[in-house]
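Researcher: Please generate the 3D structure of the following complex. Treat every line as part of one assembly.
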Amino acid sequence: MITILELIYVFFKIGLFGFGGGYAMLSLIQFEVVDHFQWLTVQEFSDIIAISQMTPGPISINTATYVGYSVFGFMGALTATLSLCLPSIILLFLVIRYLMQNKENHYVKSILQALRPVLAGLILAAALLLMNKENFCDFGLGEYNISLVIFAVSFVALYFFKVNPILLLVVSGVIGLIAL
Amino acid sequence: MVPLFELFYIFLQIGAFTLGGGYAMLSMVEMSIVTKKQYIEKEEFWDLIALIQTLPGVFAVNTALYVGYKLRGVKGAISAALGAILPSFVIILLIALFFTEFKDNETIENIFKGIRPCVVALILVPSCKIIVNQKMSWKILWIPIAIALGIWLLKISPVIIIIAVIVGALACEWYSFNKIKKQ
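Model: Done. Output below.
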């Protein structure tokens, strides 16, 4: 019973404070789900992000469904996903009442302006939180650490050459399969 | 008037076939709601999207809720949102069912060992891009770096940071707004 209430609380909070889309929400999810409640290990969380990249749908919904399922089965999946969307539904009615009449609300504008550099920090935090021993296991070939090579090559390929992320994930998976 | 089932179906397709996050989805929504069926004027649609982008929560779900509400009220909002959520819910549920069984399989584990460092790169790239694209000067650049380090090393909750920033922004705005009013 406590777990279900915790699920509702955590995903409601993520839905309410998750500004700036999927990547910016990752550090919120990780902070609650991996660090605080330890429903998932860092590896499992990384795996979900990889799966989310390869399947359609928002990362936050995918994580909510997966976490809910692994904690409390089907009902958990349903509860977590709905809790994530509940703040949006509540906000819809507030926004229709107050914001749609005066679109250029200066308070909203100031919040957004202040949040912009914060969102960059949140995404950076998500990347740093994932950079740990569990995700960079030493499965070296001789002196080389393959994990670091995969990381560096993926970064360059994505940043400078705009290679399709799904292709990168598939190639990395194949390398993992062959190198071990 | 749009039938509720059509709203559900449009967002179901969007939920089922768009890879690569919220923004890839937008052109698909525009295509089926603005260009083909002309349920909403183009300008009105993009005004709505600009508003939605300022809101917290899942972008795809918010888009479904507002477009659905605009076209068919509360029932429309619920139908569209269910359509947007259902595909990822079902897909992840199936994966969770099978993945928990295969998780300890050595082959699967090796594949994911290769994938994990790639995932880290996938998340590091957008944060670098935001910093570069917004041409942040050193006067601002310390903010994202300090926040990232605070969350990573000091374990400060991101939610606390967001609340603090919102309260701070509101206080500043309120203060300067009242100052202008007095003058």
